[in-house]
Write a structure and sequence with these properties.
It is a single chain. The protein is an alpha/beta fold and 397 residues long. It is 43% helix and 17% strand. The protein has two domains: 2-190 and 376-396, 3-Layer(aba) Sandwich (Rossmann fold), CATH 3.40.50.2000; 193-374, Glycogen Phosphorylase B (Rossmann fold). It has an eight-stranded mixed sheet, sandwiched between helices. Strands 13-12-11-14 form a four-stranded parallel sheet. A two-stranded antiparallel ribbon has the order 5-6. The radius of gyration is 21 Å and the shape is globular.
Length: 397
């Protein structure tokens, strides 16, 4: 196959969508397929490079939207300019893709390649990573408008198959994009379990002067949809039982309300926001962690949580047991599930884990096994390849 992978987010940019697009593109190439990645320029990364013998990346000139609450506090890069259509046409005609795998429904590169796919009769698979939602009512209304009058009409014109990663996304797609897809394929997000193994927790504890204190790590960028406020609000009750406990926030802080709340509650001394770290350092932070916790706002279980489970760290999450269609999450076995918005339950779950090394080890090992069976990248890659093959087969009739 000749596979075109499209995502405005791609390494060296960090984030779940970027890492998954990269991992799948490399997996496609290593499976013997020719792969072209088209993405947005980012922080001086080469305009073109060969990452694998069969994998070429082209980064198109882009402009970033400033970090605001409307952009969910991310710096969003767009390539939209008068020359984009011609540049893409020349690039893609030369590559001649058999199938297109797009990441992200609200990016200009997705829209541009959607029209290319429609004109050329090329099948497309779209992975929807993010729901256009915002906790602020005003911004949420803008997102609803964008979905209804921009995204949905584009989807209805070319009708891709859509990858559904969890039950919240399933409900969202069926509600917002009805009649805008040719079918749904249920494939969870993939992670590399081996990348999370072998971390040295002592390095992290020594670096930050943490000694052997109970340690909660919260992994991933801080944005309004994962703002850590409820986690900080649970901290006073945890500290009442275990006063030496520390909370380490590993990720870029795009939205700092949790720090303000920590000051108001008098727990600022127990919170250490270290910012983003190198990808290679993440296993060390997970090895240092007694508990990981950040998916608390009902937006599903993201890549960072699965990576924490892959490292054998017990996680506390506010998701449904059926978060992943066909995969049952059992509280107290694979993870600890807490009700949405229940601060007492969050504090109780974390405190219980911090007090019980045996429970931490048991849940951590069971979570690691679950990730190996269902979310390991080779498992997820095979599922994507099967869908891409079926799309090409159907298009050729």
């Amino acid at each position: 196959m000749r596979i075109l992978v499209v995502n405005n987010f791609y390494p060296p940019r960090v984030g779940g969508s970027a890492h998954l697009a990269d991992a799948l593109a490399r997996g496609y190439a290593r499976a013997g397929h020719d792969v072209l990645v088209v993405t947005a320029a980012y922080q001086g990364a080469p305009a073109e490079e060969e990452l694998e013998p069969r994998l070429r990346v082209v980064r198109l000139p882009s402009a970033s939207i400033p970090e605001t609450r409307l952009s969910v506090s991310f710096d969003l890069a767009f390539t939209l300019r008068p020359s984009l259509r011609r540049r893409l046409r020349e690039l893609l005609d030369a590559f001649a893709p058999d199938v297109i795998h797009q990441h992200g429904q609200f990016f200009d590169l997705t829209w541009a390649t959607a029209m290319y796919a429609r004109r050329r009769g090329i099948p497309a698979l779209l992975s929807v990573h993010t729901r256009l939602e915002n906790p602020k009512a005003h911004y949420h209304g803008i997102f609803r408008w964008l979905d209804a009058f921009v995204v949905a009409p584009i989807l209805r014109r070319y009708k891709p198959r859509i990858v559904v990663m969890d039950v919240q996304m399933d409900e969202y797609i069926k509600r917002r994009y009805r009649r805008g897809y040719a079918g749904l394929d249920y494939i969870p997000v993939g992670v590399d379990p081996n990348r999370m193994a072998g971390g040295d927790g002592e390095v992290v504890r020594a670096r930050h002067g943490l000694g052997d204190v109970p340690l909660i790590v919260t992994l991933g960028h801080v944005i309004p949809l994962r703002d850590r406020v409820w986690l900080v609000e649970a901290l006073p009750a945890v500290l009442e039982e275990l006063p030496d406990t520390r909370l380490v926030v590993v990720g870029h802080v795009y939205y700092d309300l949790f720090l303000q709340r920590a000051r108001e509650l008098g727990v600022e001394h127990a919170v250490l926001a270290i910012g983003a770290v190198a990808k290679s350092d993440v296993p060390d932070y997970l090895a240092a962690a007694d508990v990981e916790c950040h998916d608390l706002q009902g937006y599903g279980m993201g890549t960072a949580t699965l990576e924490s489970m892959a490292a054998g760290v017990p996680v506390v999450v506010a998701v449904r047991p059926d978060n992943f269609p066909g995969i049952d999450l059992i509280s107290g076995e694979h993870c600890v599930l807490v009700p949405l918005g229940d601060i007492d339950a969050i504090a109780g779950a974390i405190t219980k884990l911090l007090r019980n090394p045996a429970d931490r080890a048991r849940i951590g090992e069971s979570g690691r096994s679950l990730v190996q069976r269902h979310f390991a990248m080779d498992v997820v890659l095979d599922q994507h390849l099967a869908v891409l093959h079926s799309l090409i087969g159907a298009s050729r009739g």
